[in-house]
From TrEMBL, chain A:
GO terms for biological process: translation. The lineage of its organism: Bacteria, Bacillati, Bacillota, Clostridia, Eubacteriales. This is Glutamyl-tRNA(Gln) amidotransferase subunit A. Allows the formation of correctly charged Gln-tRNA(Gln) through the transamidation of misacylated Glu-tRNA(Gln) in organisms which lack glutaminyl-tRNA synthetase. The reaction takes place in the presence of glutamine and ATP through an activated gamma-phospho-Glu-tRNA(Gln). GO terms for cellular component: glutamyl-tRNA(Gln) amidotransferase complex. The gene is gatA.
Automatic annotation (TrEMBL), chain B:
This is Aspartyl/glutamyl-tRNA(Asn/Gln) amidotransferase subunit B. It comes from Thermincola ferriacetica. SUPFAM superfamilies: GatB/YqeY motif, Glutamine synthetase/guanido kinase. It catalyses: L-aspartyl-tRNA(Asn) + L-glutamine + ATP + H2O = L-asparaginyl-tRNA(Asn) + L-glutamate + ADP + phosphate + 2 H(+); L-glutamyl-tRNA(Gln) + L-glutamine + ATP + H2O = L-glutaminyl-tRNA(Gln) + L-glutamate + ADP + phosphate + H(+). Allows the formation of correctly charged Asn-tRNA(Asn) or Gln-tRNA(Gln) through the transamidation of misacylated Asp-tRNA(Asn) or Glu-tRNA(Gln) in organisms which lack either or both of asparaginyl-tRNA or glutaminyl-tRNA synthetases. The reaction takes place in the presence of glutamine and ATP through an activated phospho-Asp-tRNA(Asn) or phospho-Glu-tRNA(Gln). GO terms for biological process: glutaminyl-tRNAGln biosynthesis via transamidation; translation. The lineage of its organism: Bacteria, Bacillati, Bacillota, Clostridia, Eubacteriales. The gene is gatB. Residues 333-480 form the Asn/Gln amidotransferase domain. Its EC number is 6.3.5.-.
């Protein structure tokens, strides 16, 4: 089997036993990119020279007989909204088309310290706003399973790159489902960790109270390995939790006997694609056959999650994106005569339609006179949504839902109707509002397209999620399905 | 000013806190430095950065709240104040909105010898913005402007008073007292000329007897105590004139033009910003435990009012003297140090308030830059007390000390300024003066007391001021009355 097809843990064994070098792995991945990237378009930037230099560094280390960590020498792709020192970080926006950060995001630094080989930066919906990666100001990324379809969003580039074997793993960010939904559409594993478990320092902010960095991988084991490296308190991020991060690979136990799984009825109502529902029901049966106890239950405030999200996220975004004004860096309209028109022209030109739509929504929601009616009210409902989960986790170990109500849709199918587009994140959004972890794992194909199963855990409940997801994976073959590119 | 109007003033004062590093990052807060040398990705607000609160800032803010008799909040948070300006890197300022760190305090000022209490509404923390450097003389005539972000993220406390101030003079006294307190607790340099203490004022007037406030204007850009008082005086007059002519005061922000001595409109209420405050999601709420507050409280030094009371009680100084000297911590520290070597507080107070302040103001320097050491100051007064030099000569010696920092004894010796107290030596001169000025002697005998003064002056002149004036007086009277 080609090296680019393999997982982190497989490649690590090969490196350790000196059967392959990091250089060979890296070259293999670049060969794959050369084969399929024209079709997939997952990358905004490739960093070949830097990657090969890093690979050599790791190979030298191995040659010297030094111990290497599980990520050393393995190619990774970083979503292009995480700052990389000296390397373009564009957020797939005209606004930052020329922005080269003078610093590394904490996750990037942690990966580099672990010996990871960064091979490039992946495409996204501009500033991570969208569910299809059609909102990239550069080009859309295509779903490796069907090039006529979207890879999901906003981390579509990161998900597609893993699905197409253009990288071994990648990082994405998830504000309302931006890791899990594309993982579901592309048939890979995607984890949104507990809010604060992975440092946000260096992640270009969309909605600060919801954003979270997480991994895309080819299996659950790899996700646990990546989390071991990127999780943990960061003194540069006040919101990062002070928590003794466990060794997540110890959670990879093939056993769900006695595990209580809640199935919220609110996630199975209208709008869900019948074959998605069927595959999820198969998964439930599978869990039951493995000894888990599955039970229908209720998260009564689920219907408010989407409206609450579309007040809070744009409100924070309107403020977070105010800094892109053409003064210090990034795009600037040079034709303006005075500072106010420079601001206006720069921002009119620099931002795409979806970003502008959300800035306007957020500005409105925070305006004096509307704050109480929208923002404050939304904060209160957010608390109710969180309490739904708190109550549920008194009884259940995990909650099981579809990741998305549908499989990947076709380009343009929803891009003219923002509301319809927003609905594709309906199963994932409440998890961000509650700040809890959620993982999407492949659970089968519907008409040749992947379907994702979402498992939701209590705060810092990643270990249970890994155990339940791992058990499912060990007893099924869905994660092994590959697109034919 | 018309007596029929009452003035209502509230002040908003910004003080830069003298922490070593900025409020949300590790960059230096040092004043000056080449543009954009004290910056990092965090204070520049680059994409992806996050603020981390500097604990020292919170400590200083609590200290400020306590010194202003405020209640310290157990739960407080940071909010974003959103507005666009090129020197504001994120286009929002991290500040505190509805839950400030301290509220409900007061400070006392002395107006015409009477104590008056001014309420403190709140004290809150925030980050400072950067600075625009215009290429031309003014913003309008500049082809371009540059931005210096060194000041960005320097910690500030904003201290908001109740509208309890009733005259421009009270406003100045309030600001002076506030500055003294901040300097006593050592949280700010309070250098108005460097912008580390800045003051905005809300001001309105109303006919005496009217209950509701008149329409207020906000005054900005007053860079000295004098400017504050002048600007407010101008604004009071302006508002009264409008009302007298039957007009209406417009609610607006006005700027003080120091050169022209007038206030000018900056922006009207219609152009006022909607700051769209909301809790900063990048910072966790601030929970302050009582133990910490108590610990800070125990480190509070003697404050100006306490020190003033001590001067009156311990040294027997008049209230006025105590007020003047304690108004500046550095000055009263100097006073206290002098008293280690000298034990007549009132005599010292006279010299400090007289010659010393006169020379400091004249040279426009601070007491900390004064060349006269407390030991030498004490020695000068001791020389007067011992009769070695006269009070008049002492002023000459003082001038020399102020210029060179020399010891007074050395100056007296070098310049031969020792007082002549030898009666026989003076007697010869007295006789000579009497012999040379028969007309004055005649006048004195005819009851013109002023003539005595002239004769004393002649003796002093002959000794270049060194003759002991008491002895000269005594001898002259003895001879003339016989």
């Amino acid at each position: 089997m080609a090296l680019y097809r393999k997982t982190i843990h497989e490649l690590h064994q090969l490196l350790k036993s000196k059967q392959v070098s990091s250089e060979e792995i890296t070259k293999s991945v670049f060969e794959r990119i050369d084969q399929v990237e024209d079709k997939v378009k997952a990358f905004v930037t490739q960093t070949r020279e830097i990657a090969l230099a890093k690979a050599k560094e790791v190979d030298d280390k191995i040659a010297r007989g030094e111990e290497i960590g599980p990520l050393a020498g393995i190619p990774v792709v970083i979503k292009d909204n995480m700052c990389t020192r000296g390397i373009l970080t564009t957020c797939s926006s005209k606004m930052l088309h020329n922005f080269v950060p003078p610093y590394d995001a904490t996750v990037v630094k942690k990966l580099a310290d672990a010996g990871a080989v960064m091979i490039g930066k992946s495409n996204l919906d501009e500033f991570a706003m969208g569910s299809s990666t059609e909102n990239s100001r550069f080009f859309p990324t295509r779903n490796p399973w069907d090039l006529e379809r979207v890879p999901g969003g906003s981390s579509g580039g990161s998900a597609a790159a893993v699905a197409a074997d253009e990288t071994v793993y990648s990082l994405g960010s998830d504000t309302g489902g931006s890791i899990r939904q594309p993982a579901s559409f592309c048939g890979v594993v995607g984890l949104k960790p507990t809010y604060g478990l992975v440092s946000r320092y260096g992640l270009v902010a969309f909605a600060s109270s919801l954003d979270q960095i997480g991994p895309f991988s080819k299996d659950v084991t790899d996700a646990a390995i990546i989390m071991n490296t990127i999780a943990g308190h960061d003194p540069c991020d006040s919101t990062s939790v002070n928590y003794n991060v466990p060794d997540y690979t110890k959670s990879l136990v093939n056993d769900v006997r006695g595990i209580k799984i809640g199935i919220p009825k609110e996630y199975f109502v209208e709008g869900i694609q019948p074959d998605v529902r069927e595959l999820i029901e198969d998964a439930i049966k599978k869990f039951e056959s493995l000894g888990a106890v599955c039970e229908e239950m209720s998260l009564p405030h689920t219907e408010y999650a989407l409206p609450v999200y579309y007040i809070l996220a744009p409100a924070e975004a309107s403020s977070n994106l105010a800094r892109y004004d053409g003064v210090g860096y990034g795009y600037r309209d040079e034709s303006a005569d005075d500072i106010v028109s420079m601001y206006m022209k720069t921002r009119s030109e620099g931002f795409g339609a979806e970003v502008k739509r959300r800035i306007m929504l957020g500005t409105y929601a925070l305006s004096s006179g509307y704050y109480d009616a929208y923002y404050l009210k939304a904060l209160k409902v957010r608390t109710l949504i969180k309490q739904d989960f708190d109550r549920a986790f008194e009884k259940y170990d995990v909650i099981l839902t579809p990741t998305s109500p549908s499989t990947a849709f076709k380009f343009g199918e929803k891009s003219d109707n923002p509301m319809e587009m927003y609905l594709s994140d309906i199963c994932t959004i409440a998890v961000n509002l509650a700040g809890i972890p959620g993982i999407s794992i492949p659970c089968g194909l519907s008409q040749g397209l992947p379907v994702g199963l979402q498992l939701i855990g209590k705060p810092l409940g990643e270990e249970t999620l890994f155990r339940v997801a791992y058990t499912y994976e060990q007893n099924t073959d869905h994660h092994k399905a590959k697109p034919s590119l | 000013m018309s007596a029929d109007y009452e003035v209502i003033i509230g002040l908003e004062v910004h003080a830069e806190l003298k922490t070593d590093s900025k409020i949300f990052c590790c960059s230096s807060t040092e004043f000056g430095g080449d543009p954009n040398t004290h910056v990092c990705p965090v204070c520049l607000g680059l994409p992806g950065v996050l603020p981390v609160l500097n604990k020292k800032v919170v400590e200083f803010a609590i200290k400020t709240g306590l010194a202003l008799n405020c209640k310290i909040a157990e739960f407080s948070k940071f909010d974003r104040k959103n507005y666009y300006y090129p020197d504001l890197p994120k286009n929002y300022q991290i500040s505190q909105y509805d839950l400030p760190i301290a509220e409900h305090g007061y400070l006392d000022i002395t107006v015409n010898g009477e104590q008056k209490r001014i309420g403190i509404t709140r004290v809150h923390m925030e980050e400072d913005a950067g600075k625009l450097v215009h290429e031309g003389a003014t913003i309008a005539s500049s082809k371009y402007s540059r931005v210096d972000y060194n000041r960005t993220g320097v910690p500030l406390v904003e201290i908001v008073s109740e509208p309890d101030i009733r005259s421009p003079e009270e406003a100045r006294l309030y600001l002076e007292k506030l500055k003294a307190i901040l300097q006593y607790i050592d949280v700010s340099d309070c250098k108005m000329e460097e912008g580390s203490l800045r003051c905005d004022a809300n001001i309105s007037v109303r006919p005496v007897g009217q209950k509701e406030f008149g329409t207020k204007t906000e005054l900005k850009n007053m860079n000295s105590f004098r400017a504050l008082q002048r600007a407010l005086e101008y604004e009071v007059q302006r508002q009264i004139e409008i009302l007298e002519e039957g007009g209406r005061v417009v609610q607006e922000t006005r700027t003080w033009d120091e050169n022209k001595g007038i206030t000018l409109s900056m922006r009207s209420k219609e152009q006022a910003h909607d700051y769209r405050y909301f809790p900063d999601p990048d910072l966790v709420p601030l929970v302050i435990d009582e133990e910490w507050v108590n610990k800070i409280k125990s480190t509070l030094p003697e404050l100006p009012d306490q020190r003033k009371a001590r001067y009156v009680e311990q040294y027997g100084l008049p209230e006025y003297d105590a007020e003047v000297i304690t108004a500046s911590k550095a000055l009263s520290d100097y006073f206290d140090r002098c008293l280690k070597y000298y034990d007549n507080p009132k005599a010292l107070s006279n010299w400090v308030m007289g010659e010393l302040l006169k020379h400091l103001n004249g040279a426009n320097i601070d007491i900390t830059e004064c060349k006269i050491s407390p030991e030498n100051m004490a020695e000068l007064l001791t020389l007067i007390d011992k009769g070695t030099i006269s009070g008049k000569i002492a002023k000459t010696v003082f001038e020399e000390m102020f210029a060179t920092g020399e010891k007074p004894e050395k100056i007296v010796q070098d310049k031969g300024l020792v007082q002549i107290s030898d009666e026989s030596a003076i007697a010869a001169l007295v006789d000579e003066v009497i012999a040379n000025n028969p007309q004055s002697v005649e006048d004195y005998k005819n009851g013109k007391d002023r003539a005595l003064g002239f004769l004393v002056g002649q003796v002093m002149k002959a000794t270049k001021g060194k003759a002991n004036p008491e002895i000269v007086n005594k001898l002259l009277k003895e001879r003339l009355n016989n």
